């Protein structure tokens, strides 16, 4: 069994499979991120999970993990989420982007969170309308994710 962690560089394969399999319904949310500053350099990867119902993974990433290097360099963030953002997290992401016009975010979600909530649907629509956001739902094809680029999630796996 894997040691319980809240963030790190690599994620155990078992956790990745459970968290990002859309036929599973885990209680927690995992966020895998890849940050690219400018066009050159090595992307930085990291992951976080929600601490509890009041500390969502998206807010933990924006407040605790992401550190703005410069407003003069474009930054591309790619987020892989086991659940789509709730209404409050959608607002937090959009507020963050208003403060950082040099940042764009690609968001890939494995499953939709409380899709029957009108507020959550409004939040996702607002994210989708933002020119700084590319919002997509992941698709499973066989045993690998389709549409994420060759080996994207492999960067996060350990063990």
UniProtKB/TrEMBL annotation:
Family annotation (PROSITE patterns): CYT_DCMP_DEAMINASES_1 (PS00903), CYT_DCMP_DEAMINASES_2 (PS51747)
Record-linked PANTHER family: C-U-EDITING ENZYME APOBEC-1, MRNA EDITING ENZYME
Keyword annotations from UniProtKB, A to Z: Hydrolase, Metal-binding, Zinc
Family the UniProt entry places it in: Belongs to the cytidine and deoxycytidylate deaminase family.
Name under which the protein is recorded: C->U-editing enzyme APOBEC-1-like protein
Signal sequence extent: none
Domain CMP/dCMP-type deaminase: 3-127
Cofactor(s) needed by this chain: Zn(2+)
Gene3D superfamilies: Cytidine Deaminase, domain 2
Lineage, highest ranks first: Eukaryota, Metazoa, Chordata, Craniata, Vertebrata
Top-level taxon in the UniProt lineage: Eukaryota
One Pfam family it belongs to: SNAD4
């Amino acid at each position: 069994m894997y040691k319980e962690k809240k963030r790190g560089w690599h994620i155990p394969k078992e956790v990745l499979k459970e968290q990002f399999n859309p036929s599973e319904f885990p209680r927690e949310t995992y966020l895998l991120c890849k940050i690219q500053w400018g066009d050159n350099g090595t992307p930085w990867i990291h992951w976080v999970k929600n601490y509890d119902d009041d500390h969502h993974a998206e807010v933990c990433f924006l407040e605790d993990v992401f550190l703005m290097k410069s407003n003069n360099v474009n930054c591309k963030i790619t987020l892989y989420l086991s659940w789509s953002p709730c209404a409050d997290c959608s607002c937090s992401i959009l507020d963050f982007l208003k403060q950082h016009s040099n940042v764009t975010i690609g968001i890939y979600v494995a499953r939709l969170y409380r899709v029957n909530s009108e507020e959550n649907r409004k939040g996702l629509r607002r994210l989708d309308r933002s020119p700084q956001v590319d919002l997509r739902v992941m698709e499973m094809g066989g045993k690998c994710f389709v549409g994420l680029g060759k080996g994207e999630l492999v960067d996060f796996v350990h063990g």
